[in-house]
Design brief:
heterotrimer; A mainly beta (108); B mainly alpha (266); C alpha+beta (163); A: mainly beta; Immunoglobulin-like; five-stranded mixed beta sheet; three-stranded antiparallel beta sheet; 8 strands; 0% helix; B: mainly alpha; Cytochrome Bc1 Complex, Chain D, domain 2; 2 domains; 12 helices; 42% helix; SoxZ_dom (chain A); SoxZ (chain A); Sulfur compound chelating protein SoxZ (chain A); Ig_E-set (chain A); transferase activity (chain B)
Chain lengths: 108, 266, 163
């Protein structure tokens, strides 16, 4: 599917010092490079190989994905909120495409 | 019954399950159960149920998100979008509980996928979407999701009656090299193991579903085709009269169970 | 007769004997462990671990690393995988990376989670593909260079409803 719009759950508000959970989903077939098509030809690998979450410009969590990650990759992790946070999420595709999303956490 | 036992023994697939069944039979499944009817949800592993329950873990919602954008996008020669006629998508609440319905102009039953394509070709003057395309699956999920939690309520009287009878005949007819009818697995042996899987009652209330095996969302007719392939029968085409009538039968069979689209199933 | 053919026959006899003793489950877990296959899998895993952490010797991480995987996966295409490592996640003492491997896949790498003190917790989850019943191995690299390891077996069932 050409549409790689991600879905992200980030709390809108948090207290200073809170450690909050973030969940992300993105549509991607995660073609492993292990499968063959009907003609017996190997379908070339094409996966999302890197995910990064930056908070106020600084990487706080990242992951290197291998072909063993299921289609439509799901990732959950935590960040520590120390003040109003601008979050930026980035997924890097084997084909060079980069998919991005943003979110904000306000501090009460 | 005797023939059934022989066919299964030949295939070497069904074992009469022990402890697992006893466990699930005594559970209270709340809204996922209506009398003796149980949603496929109740036959899934806890991890699979958890994946369905959280809309940020359930990949079915990814497809729905793109369909939401399409709802208000004009397409076709008429320059109309779904929203131009129907307003907000929430106007579709309850619609999915009644489908398939009898469609006078064609003199046949029509399911949601066909209704969407009928709108596209007749009202929007646009190309119909291909069966099993992300667009058609996504829009079907979006429309059905508006009825999420509402009980299935499919009518089989009036003009629907003869089509219901056809669907029923399909359901109970043995087919394929394994000589199995839908009912042999999903009525006679639901709750028992077919190799490592537990046979469900074959309820359609969660379709289109995100299937772990497919690693994507798929239609009820794709599942029908898979079942037919499994018993080594010649499958019908998705969207065929045979499968729409079968959909009518199994949807009515699910009356009372909640719409669960997009569900997650093994 | 080649040695492997001989082994195959011995194994079959073994299965029959054990099944008669109604311990078929034990036999099932032993069956895929043909020595050659196991050796190849462990060599691939060793190589992958060496690539990730070099020559460091991992210590036993049981009790520090919680590896959350189902005992039996409903479908090998989509197996939940969670990891939590006990750590203060302070600037001078935190978990840097958790490497995850699956020793029975065509290639053992699954994912590497990279944490920072601002992660707050060394905890993450995803979903993975497992080709068959196998071990999932977790290696946690700490900020002081120490490496801890733990593993868990996931049984991957062969479904009947392949449609």
């Amino acid at each position: 599917m050409a549409d790689h719009t991600p879905r992200i759950r980030v709390p809108k508000k948090a207290a200073k010092g809170d450690v909050v959970e973030i969940k992300t989903l993105i549509s991607h077939q995660m073609e492993s490079g292990q499968r063959k098509d009907k003609q017996g030809q190997v379908i070339p690998r094409e996966i999302i190989n890197k995910f990064t979450c930056a908070m106020n410009g600084e990487t706080v969590f990242s992951a290197d994905l291998e072909p063993a990650i299921s289609a439509n990759p799901y990732l959950s992790f935590y960040v520590k909120v120390e003040g109003p946070a601008d979050l930026k999420f980035t997924w890097v595709d084997d084909n060079g495409s980069v998919y991005e999303a943003d979110a904000k956490i306000a501090v009460a | 019954m005797r023939r059934f036992a022989i066919a299964l023994a030949a295939a070497g697939v069904i074992s009469v399950a022990g402890a697992g069944v006893a466990f699930t039979e005594t559970m209270d499944w709340g809204k996922y159960q209506a009398g003796d009817k149980r949603s496929g949800y109740t036959y899934a592993q806890p991890e699979t149920r958890a994946m369905q329950d959280d809309e940020f873990e359930n990949p079915g919602f990814l497809l729905m998100e793109s369909a939401t954008a399409m709802w208000s996008k004009p397409e076709g020669a008429a320059g109309k979008s779904c929203a131009d006629c129907h307003g907000d998508v929430s106007s579709m609440k309850g619609v999915a509980t009644r489908y398939p319905v009898f469609f006078k102009p064609s003199g046949k039953m029509m399911n949601i996928e066909q209704r969407i394509n009928q709108c596209r070709t007749e009202q929007m003057k646009a190309e119909p979407w291909k069966w099993e395309s992300d667009q058609l699956l996504g829009m079907t999920v979006l429309v059905k999701y508006q009825s999420e939690g509402l009980p299935m309520n499919v009518a089989i009287d009036g003009p629907a009656a003869p089509f219901y009878e056809k669907g029923k005949a399909f359901y109970y007819e043995r087919r394929g090299q394994l000589d199995l009818a839908c009912s042999n697995c999903h009525e006679d042996h639901s709750g028992q193991n077919l190799r490592a899987n537990i046979l469900s009652q074959g309820m359609p209330n969660g379709f289109p579903t995100y299937r772990l095996k497919w690693q994507k969302v798929g239609s009820l007719h794709r599942r029908f085709k898979g079942c037919n392939d499994q018993v080594r029968a010649e499958p019908y085409k998705p969207g065929s009269d045979e499968y729409v009538d079968l959909e009518l039968f199994v949807s009515h069979r699910a009356n009372g169970l909640p719409v669960e689209t997009p569900s997650v199933r093994n | 007769m080649s040695e492997s053919a001989f082994r195959a026959i011995t194994r079959r006899r073994f299965v029959v004997t054990v099944a008669a003793g109604s311990a078929a489950a034990a036999a099932l877990t032993l069956l895929p462990d043909a020595p050659a296959q196991a050796q190849e899998a462990s060599k691939k895993l060793e190589d992958a671990i060496k690539k990730a952490i070099g020559d460091k010797q991992p210590a036993d991480g049981a009790g520090v690393i919680a590896l959350d995987v189902p005992q039996i996966a409903e479908n090998g295409n989509t197996v939940p995988l969670g990891i939590a490592v006990e750590s203060p996640m302070a600037a001078d003492n935190y978990v840097k990376t958790v490497h995850l491997f699956a020793d029975g896949n065509p290639s053992p790498g699954v994912i590497a989670f990279h944490f920072t003190p601002k992660s707050g917790k060394a905890e993450a989850a995803t979903r993975m593909r497992l080709a068959k019943t196998q071990n999932v191995v977790a290696l946690a690299e700490m900020s002081d260079g120490k490496v801890l390891m733990t593993k868990a077996e996931v049984k991957v069932t062969i479904g009947g409803c392949g449609g």
